[in-house]
C-alpha cells in the first residue's frame, strides 16, 4: 500500500465524545502536505487493520473516559491485547507513537492511553516517537499542536531507516542536523511545549498570514487596552499568524419535503437498549434562597427490564434548548425550513480522505430534529471550526479576530475567551454578526449531542420498579462573552419538564381525569464497574458525599436497610457517612438520614456546614475533609486493620482532592511514615478497589 510518492502509516483512534477522532482527522489531513499518506480507522474497526502483520509505523490517538477507562470504542481492542497468553514479542515488529487525551482533574489522568501504551510495550512494540499526554484541564492544544508538529520528522526518520535497511539510497530524504537532533525526540510534552520551535520548514498545512493591522483596517479604540472575545491587543494584533489549514468540506445537505417521520431516539444511541420511562415524582430538596437548586426525580421502571445496582450510573437522552434551536435557525436564515426533511450525504469529490456521514446524523430527518437531538450546539468550538468560520465571515476585522483565535499566536486568547468562558456557536454568531456559516459546516464541525450521565440514588431492592436521581440545575450566568444566562442543557430541560410536578396548578391538570400529564424521558444503563457496596456485608465502609455527591449513598443505605430487614442473621459492618453543604437550613438535602441512623443502618453520621456562622469558642469544621481529620484513628482502623472500603462522590477539584490529602495525612500520622510512603499506601488501596471515587469537575 506504500508507493514511491506517498509513504504510508496507519492512524488509529478511539474516542468517547469526538475529541480523539477530530485530532486524528487533523493528522490525516496534514499528512498529505508532508508527502505522507494515513490509513485512518477507529480502533473498534478491527476487521480493517491488523497490527499483527503491520509493517508501517502506527500512530494512535486515544482518549480516557469515566474514572480512567479506555473509551467504549477501544474496549474490544484493549481486551484483545490484554490476553495473557500473548508472548512478550507479539508486537516486536511494531513501531508506534501514541497521543493520549485526558483531564488532570481526574485521578487516573490519560489512563486510557497509558493502558494501551504500557501493554504494547509489554508485548515488544517500540516507540518511534515519544508518547504525548494532553490535558483538557489546561487545554489539549498545548500538547497536541507541538506533538503533531514533531510527528512528521519522526515519521520521516522511520521511513529513512527502513530505506537504509533495504539498501536503498537515502538521498530522497533531507537530514538536517536539526532533524537528526529532533529524531532523538527528547520532547518534554507538558505545559512547556508551547516553547517548542521546530526547524522543519513550514508547509502548506499551516498558512502564514502577514497582514498588519493597518492593512486590514483593524484599528482599535484607545479605550480597548484589554483583549476580549472580539478584540485583540499587541502582540497578537500585530503578529503574523500561523493558522490551521482549512478543513475540506465533505458534507452536502439536500432539502426535501415536510412529509415523513423522524427516526426514533433509540437509533441515536447504538451503545445499548433505550427505555422510555415516566417521571412520577419531583421534589426540590433545597430551599428557595439556596445558592444552587437541587431536584430529586423519581422514574417508574416497573414496566421495563431496566436493572441497576446502587452506585451505578445511567444516561438521560436530552434535547437542546428549543429557543436556542429557533435562534440558530433564524441566524442561519432557515426559520422556514425547520420542519423540512433533509438528506445528509458525503459530498462528491471531497478532498477529505475516508469521509463518511457522521454516525449521529440520520440519513433522513427534519432540520429541527438534527439541531435538537443530534448536534451539541452548546459545544465549545474547536480551532478547526473557527478556521472554517473565517471563510464564512465578511467583515475584515471580524475575520482577522477569528484567525487570531485559531492561531498559535492567539492560543492564550482562545483559552481565555472561548474555552474557559464556555463560549458556544450562538455566542460566536452574536459576537461576529457577519459570520454566516452553511448548514453543512455545522454538521461537519459540531459534535454529537451526548446523553448526560447521573448517579442512581435509590435501590431496586428497597423500591422495586423505581429509580431516583438527584442533580443541581446548572447555571451559566451572563458575562462579557455570553450576553444571556443559560441553564445546563439537560438539567435545564429536566427542570422545565417537571415544573408541573414541582408547582402544580389547575392549568396543569388533565381535563378528563383531573390527574397530571405524565412526562416521559429516555434513558439507558451505564453500569459502574466498581462503585458498588462491598460483596461481604460484614466489611465496614465509609462514604464521603457533600452536596449532590450524597446521591449514590442514599441508594447504598436503602439497600443496606432492606438487607438488614431480610437477613436478621447476617453480620453487618459499621457504616460512616460524611456529608456537608453550605447552610443547614437551606441545602441539607436529605434530613431523613437521621432515620437510617436511628434504625441502625447508618452507624455514624458526621455533617458540616461551610457557610453557617458559629458562636462557639472553637469553630466547627467547615468541610468534609476537615471532619475526616477529626476521625483519623477510625479512618485508619477501617482502611488498614479491618480492610474496609472508602467511597467519595462529588466535586473533584474542590473536594475529592482535599479528602485524598486528608487520608494521606492520616495514613502518614497513624503509620508513622513519610508522606510519599502514605501516598503509596493510598495508591495500593485504589489498586485493590477499596478507595473508590465517582467524581466530576
Automatic annotation (TrEMBL):
Where found, per UniProt? Cytoplasm
Keywords, in A-Z order: Amino-acid biosynthesis, Cytoplasm, FAD, Flavoprotein, FMN, Methionine biosynthesis, NADP, Oxidoreductase, Phosphoprotein, S-adenosyl-L-methionine
Could you name the Gene Ontology cellular component terms for this entry?
cytosol
Q: Which SUPFAM superfamilies match?
A: Ferredoxin reductase-like, C-terminal NADP-linked domain (SSF52343), Flavoproteins (SSF52218), Riboflavin synthase domain-like (SSF63380)
This protein's record includes keyword Oxidoreductase: yes
Write down the CDD domains for this protein, in alphabetical order. Answer: methionine_synthase_red
Q: What protein does this entry describe?
A: Methionine synthase reductase
Q: Which gene encodes it?
A: Mtrr
Name its species: Chordeiles acutipennis (Lesser nighthawk)
Coiled coil spans? none
**Catalysed reactions listed for this entry:** 2 cob(II)alamin + A + 2 H2O + 2 H(+) = 2 aquacob(III)alamin + AH2
For activity, the cofactor(s) needed are:
FMN; FAD
Amino acid at each position: 500500500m506504500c508507493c514511491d510518492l506517498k509513504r504510508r502509516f496507519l492512524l488509529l483512534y478511539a474516542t468517547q465524545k469526538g475529541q480523539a477522532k477530530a485530532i486524528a482527522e487533523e493528522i490525516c489531513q496534514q499528512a498529505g502536505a508532508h508527502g505522507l499518506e494515513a490509513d485512518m480507522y477507529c480502533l473498534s474497526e478491527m476487521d480493517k487493520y491488523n497490527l499483527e502483520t503491520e509493517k508501517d509505523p502506527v500512530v494512535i490517538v486515544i482518549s480516557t473516559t469515566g474514572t480512567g477507562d479506555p473509551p467504549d470504542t477501544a474496549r474490544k481492542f484493549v481486551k484483545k491485547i490484554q490476553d495473557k497468553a500473548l508472548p512478550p514479542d507479539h508486537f516486536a515488529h511494531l513501531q508506534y507513537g501514541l497521543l493520549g487525551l485526558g483531564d488532570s482533574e481526574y485521578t487516573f489522568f490519560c489512563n486510557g492511553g497509558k493502558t494501551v501504551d504500557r501493554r504494547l510495550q509489554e508485548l515488544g512494540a517500540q516507540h518511534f516517537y515519544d508518547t504525548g499526554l494532553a490535558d483538557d484541564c489546561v487545554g489539549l492544544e498545548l500538547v497536541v499542536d507541538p506533538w503533531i508538529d514533531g510527528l512528521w520528522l519522526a515519521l520521516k526518520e522511520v521511513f529513512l531507516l527502513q530505506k537504509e535497511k533495504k539498501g536503498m539510497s537515502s538521498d530522497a530524504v533531507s537530514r538536517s542536523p536539526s532533524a537528526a537532533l529532533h529524531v532523538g525526540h527528547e520532547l518534554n510534552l507538558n505545559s512547556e511545549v508551547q516553547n517548542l520551535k521546530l526547524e522543519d520548514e513550514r508547509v502548506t498545512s499551516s498558512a502564514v498570514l502577514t497582514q498588519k493591522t493597518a492593512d486590514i483596517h483593524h484599528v482599535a479604540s484607545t479605550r480597548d487596552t484589554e483583549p476580549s472575545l472580539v478584540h485583540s491587543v499587541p502582540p497578537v494584533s500585530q503578529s503574523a499568524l500561523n493558522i490551521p489549514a482549512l478543513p475540506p468540506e465533505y458534507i452536502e445537505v439536500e432539502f426535501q419535503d415536510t412529509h415523513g417521520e423522524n427516526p426514533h431516539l433509540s437509533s441515536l444511541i447504538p451503545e445499548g437498549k433505550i427505555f422510555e420511562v415516566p417521571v412520577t415524582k419531583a421534589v426540590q430538596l433545597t430551599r428557595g434562597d439556596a445558592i444552587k437548586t437541587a431536584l430529586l426525580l423519581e422514574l417508574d421502571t416497573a414496566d421495563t427490564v431496566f436493572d441497576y445496582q446502587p452506585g451505578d450510573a445511567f444516561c438521560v437522552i436530552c434535547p437542546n434548548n428549543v429557543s436556542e434551536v429557533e435562534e440558530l435557525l433564524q441566524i442561519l436564515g432557515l426559520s422556514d425550513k425547520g420542519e423540512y426533511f433533509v438528506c445528509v450525504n458525503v459530498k462528491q469529490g471531497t478532498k477529505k480522505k475516508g469521509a463518511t456521514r457522521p454516525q449521529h446524523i440520520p440519513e433522513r430527518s427534519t432540520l429541527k430534529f438534527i439541531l435538537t437531538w443530534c448536534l451539541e450546539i452548546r459545544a465549545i468550538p474547536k480551532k478547526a471550526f473557527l478556521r472554517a468560520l473565517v471563510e464564512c465571515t465578511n467583515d475584515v476585522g471580524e475575520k482577522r479576530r477569528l484567525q487570531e483565535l485559531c492561531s498559535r499566536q492567539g492560543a492564550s486568547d482562545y483559552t481565555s475567551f472561548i474555552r474557559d468562558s464556555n463560549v458556544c456557536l450562538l455566542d460566536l454568531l452574536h459576537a461576529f454578526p457577519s459570520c454566516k456559516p452553511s448548514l453543512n459546516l455545522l454538521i461537519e464541525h459540531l459534535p454529537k449531542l451526548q446523553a448526560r450521565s447521573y448517579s442512581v440514588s435509590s435501590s431496586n431492592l428497597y423500591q422495586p420498579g423505581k429509580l431516583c436521581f438527584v442533580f443541581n440545575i446548572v447555571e451559566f450566568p451572563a458575562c462579557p462573552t455570553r450576553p444571556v444566562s443559560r441553564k445546563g442543557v439537560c438539567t435545564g430541560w429536566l427542570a422545565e419538564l417537571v415544573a408541573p410536578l414541582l408547582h402544580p396548578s389547575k392549568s396543569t391538570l388533565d381535563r378528563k381525569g383531573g390527574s397530571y400529564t405524565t412526562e416521559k424521558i429516555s434513558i439507558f444503563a451505564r453500569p459502574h464497574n466498581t462503585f458498588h457496596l462491598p460483596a461481604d456485608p460484614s466489611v465496614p465502609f465509609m462514604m464521603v458525599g457533600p452536596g449532590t455527591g450524597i446521591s449514590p449513598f442514599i441508594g447504598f443505605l436503602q439497600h443496606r436497610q432492606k438487607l438488614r430487614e431480610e437477613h436478621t442473621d447476617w453480620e453487618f459492618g459499621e457504616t460512616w457517612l460524611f456529608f456537608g453543604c453550605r447552610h443547614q437550613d437551606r441545602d441539607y438535602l436529605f434530613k431523613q438520614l437521621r432515620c437510617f441512623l436511628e434504625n441502625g443502618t447508618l452507624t455514624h453520621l458526621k455533617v458540616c456546614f461551610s457557610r453557617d456562622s458559629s458562636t462557639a469558642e472553637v469553630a466547627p469544621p467547615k468541610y468534609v475533609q476537615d471532619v475526616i481529620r477529626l476521625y483519623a484513628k477510625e479512618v485508619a482502623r477501617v482502611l488498614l486493620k479491618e480492610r474496609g472500603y472508602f467511597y467519595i462522590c462529588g466535586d473533584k477539584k474542590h473536594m475529592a482532592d482535599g479528602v485524598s490529602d486528608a487520608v494521606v495525612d492520616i495514613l502518614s500520622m497513624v503509620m508513622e511514615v513519610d508522606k510519599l510512603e502514605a501516598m503509596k499506601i493510598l495508591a495500593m488501596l485504589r489498586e485493590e478497589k477499596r478507595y473508590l471515587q465517582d467524581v466530576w469537575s
